[in-house]
Amino acid sequence: MATIKDIAHKAGVSAATVSRVLNNDQSLAVSPDTRNRIFSIAEQLGYKPSRLRQLKRNTERAGKMVSLLLWCSIEEERDDPYYASIRRGIELRCEELGLTLGQTLRGRSSIATLQKTDGLIVVGGVEPEEVIKLHPDKNTIVLVDQYHEQLEYDSVCLHFRQAVDQALGHLLELGHRQIGFIGGKSDGERRAHYFERFMRERGLYNPQFVRVGAWSTADGYLMMNNLLTEEERPTACFVASDPLAIGALRALHGHGIRVPEDMAVVGFDDIEMAAFVQPPLTTVRAYPEEMGKAAVQLLSERFEGREPPSHCVIGTKLVIRESSCRNI
What is the pLDDT of residue 327? Predict the structure, then answer.
């Protein structure tokens, strides 16, 4: 079996240098060419090849730069923590894998300022055709929370159909048939789509019970106020984000409508505040931080040589609290 001295002799360096390179000592001042030569010789001589392959992958990955393109503005991210959590997951996984996080751009208009990068993570409804002009390697683009299927790209999305089925199935089990919807405006927004499909399949869809506006707590308040002006009111409401739901609860309290006795409310996200509003909010727990981590993992696999596109779907979980039923 080959030894460190054998590798050192063939590479023309000291045994100590070989030992430090093979143990991934990043403090060692040695050129990339020398590192690669040592790895190559060690593999040729059969020196612990499986460990060497991992060390080589780690070394190559450490030099990669990842850029981030977010569709949402800073203000929109502040109003709805969903996208902030995706970004946090990206940052954490980049740090864990030793990847450098480069530019963070926001909005479609910022695409033109994209600098050269090894990989790009696109979060939200930015069309890939706009991005590919400036980052032409589609193998190193990962789409997160994209509205439309793009099978030729790596992608990460939330299981929105599961989320809506969980929320509405819960309300149906409680006996509700007149169910409203409050959501935000986005191209291809899927919670509204799956809500309508679920309700139409059961002959329960009523467009008079649907309100769509901005993704903010203030608009949640305004939309619920508007919904309450109808002569016929729903007995329950699925609200497409927890910030919207918090605004909706405030409107219900202002009208003297008891929750859940007069109207049950189910939100979406399970942000920290959801458990502390009055009454505590039943909601569908999403895992946006895990979505961000999964996106970085997919990009890392591409850097290591994976060829076929891969698609990751993150599931959801219904968290039942007092806004939908008292006896829990």
Answer: 66
Lowest-confidence range among 63-72, 206-215, 283-292, 314-323?
A: 63-72
Residues, the chain: 328
Rounded distance between C-alpha atoms, residue 28 and residue 247, angstroms: 56
Kindly report the CA angle at 195 between 153 and 257, in degrees rounded to 5?
135
Residue with tokens 């393109």: 69
Type of residue found at 259: V
Asked whether the predicted pLDDT for residue 309 surpasses 80, the reply is yes
Residue 279: C-alpha distances to residues 80, 92, 181, 221 (Å): 20, 33, 19, 16
Q: CA triplet 140, 146, 152: central angle to 5 degrees?
A: 45
Torsion angle of C-alpha atoms 42, 48, 50, 52, degrees rounded to 10: -40
Residues of the chain above pLDDT 70, percent: 91
> Would you say residue 198 has pLDDT above 60?
yes
* Inter-residue contact 304 to 61 (CB < 8 Å): yes
Contact, 319 vs 283, CB < 8 A?
yes
Q: How far is CA 252 from the centre of its chain?
A: 31
Pairing of the two strands 282-285 and 317-319: antiparallel
Given its phi and psi angles, is residue 72 left (phi above 0), alpha (psi -120 to 50 degrees) or beta? beta
Rounded Cα distance between 307 and 227, Å, is 50
- Whether the bond into 279 is cis, omega within 30 of 0: yes
Q: What is the pLDDT of residues 27-48, one digit of tens each?
A: 777 888 888 888 888 878 877 6
